[in-house]
Write a structure and sequence with these properties.
Blueprint (H helix, E strand, L loop, with lengths): L2 E4 L4 E2 L6 E2 L4 E5 L4 E3 L2 H6 L7 H10 L18 H24 L8 H21 L2
Antiparallel strand pairs: 1-4, 2-3, 4-5
Helix pairs in contact: 3-4
The chain binds zinc ion.
Length: 134
C-alpha cells in the first residue's frame, strides 16, 4: 500500500517522465516500487493508495456533520434555585429568538446561523439582566 507523500528529493517518473520538486505532493509505494505525482500513472505502476482516508476527510469537512457522542447524565439532585435559573435561561432564549427574528426577518429560524445569533443574544440578555439584578 502506497501513500501520498511530500517529495523529499526532486526526481522524475520512469514511466511517464513527469518531474517533481522537493516539497511537492506525490504518490509513493515501496513494494512493488511505484512513484509519480500522477495518481493514474502511479496506479499503472502497480501502486495503490487508500482512498477511504480522502473520502473520510471529505465527509469530515462537510459542515454540521452528525456525530454521535456518548454522554453520561450525572445522577444528582437538581436544586430548586437551579430550576429557577434554568427558567430564566429559557426565557432569555425565547426573548433572543424574538429579537433575532425581528432583526433578521429573512433568515430561516431553523438554520445554524439563526441559532448562533439567538444564542449570542441570549447570552447578552442574561448578562444585562444579571447586571441589573445586582
Ligand atoms: Zn508517472
Amino acid at each position: 500500500m502506497g501513500t501520498k507523500i511530500t517529495a523529499k528529493y526532486s526526481g522524475s517518473c520512469k514511466t511517464c517522465g513527469e518531474t517533481w520538486n522537493v516539497g511537492q505532493g506525490m504518490y509513493y509505494q515501496k513494494l512493488p516500487k511505484a512513484m509519480c505525482t500522477d495518481l493514474e500513472c502511479f496506479t499503472e505502476q502497480g501502486g495503490t493508495v487508500q482512498t477511504s482516508f480522502q473520502s473520510s476527510f471529505k465527509t469530515s469537512t462537510t459542515p454540521f456533520m452528525k456525530e454521535k457522542t456518548k454522554f453520561v447524565m450525572p445522577d444528582v439532585e437538581v436544586p430548586d434555585t437551579l430550576t429557577v435559573a434554568a427558567e430564566v435561561v429559557v426565557a432569555a432564549i425565547k426573548k433572543a429568538h424574538d429579537l433575532a427574528h425581528l432583526m433578521y426577518p429573512d433568515l430561516e429560524t431553523e438554520t445554524q446561523l439563526f441559532g448562533t445569533i439567538r444564542s449570542k443574544l441570549a447570552d447578552q440578555i442574561l448578562y444585562v439582566w444579571s447586571k441589573k439584578g445586582q
